[in-house]
Please model this.
Amino acid sequence: MGNVPFVWEGTDRKGKKVKGKSMAANEAAVRADLRRKGVVPTRVKKQRSGLFSGGGTITPLDIALFCRQLATMLAAGIPLVQSFEIVGTGHENAAMQKLIMAVKADVEGGSALAEALAKHPLYFDDLFVNLVEAGEQAGALDTLLEKIATYKEKTEALKKKIKKALTYPAAVVVVALVVTTILLIFVIPAFEDLFKGFGADLPSFTRMIIDLSVFVREKGIFIAILMGGSVSTFLYFQKRSRKMRHFLDRMSLKMPVIGSILRKAAVARYARTLSTMFAAGVPLVEALESVAGATGNIVFEIGVLEMRDEVSTGQTLQQSMENTGLFPNMVIQMIAVGEESGSLDAMSSKVADFFEEDVDNAVDNLSSLLEPMIMAILGVLVGGLVVAMYLPIFKMGAVI
Model:
């Protein structure tokens, strides 16, 4: 097991508080090393982002750019270690620079590139490492790095499209709730005081809004705590409970409009990853294991792992895809053609291109559909409160 970074705090022999960073295999090794140096550790914690906290964050697009630059260097005949030196020193992101130099140090020490990358799983996942290992074994590392760069750029573009489609309506709904809450807490009470001098019964709608305002003012803090606790609990279990994620992923695929987009996105990621792995020369059964984790949906992940088991017993990929019931007939037929013609990587790439474009169009259409719908909801919420407050005034005017 390789050393990992830890941050620590403690007191030295003079009782002075000290803190720092250490590289070690585990927490116990850090504590033992500190005691040998005369430091009594009070807090030792694994550094979450390794050597690379501070000086910027590392994004998937930084990794894609690194792959493309390294591929260009290797294709030009520059040795691997020297390529790392050139790419690392020229990078604007300090955190990325440190990451590249850390990998370079491991490679200089005699580690294979795949082994050196595997020490940083936060940035280089199993799929990435497997592809690099395949490239090293085939003697075509530059080609594989180009494919990895293209793969990461396309998958990130797809994720951004989907996030954009979901973020806009969520943001507008949050703003609508905030505006409504402000009206209920600060504006409605002013009208309530005004209506007390009317000496007449208020319209039912107005009375209902005033009662809601009173409820929010009296119980608002408890509602906020309850909602915050509910969201925190949901996020906690959503991250840690595979059963809950499975349930949410299954339900999300059944949602109208959104479900169709998520299903197409999962198919696109499946096809793109399969194409990249197969083009790298990774055996199909082994490739499907990495493909499963890259689909981004547990329902598809389980389905692909079932496909892997069936393929390992001699079943064709086409038949195993049919058995899951997750893939459109067009995808199954194209994969079948790829299997028969020996061009599975090319056909999978075509499937990925088609569905990525389909997702782009679906997201654009969804955005166009949601904008007027959200404006209507916002208008009903705010407009309803305004109308409720002016109804008594209109009623009084009619009586006069």
Notes: Residues 49-54 have pLDDT under 50 and may be disordered.
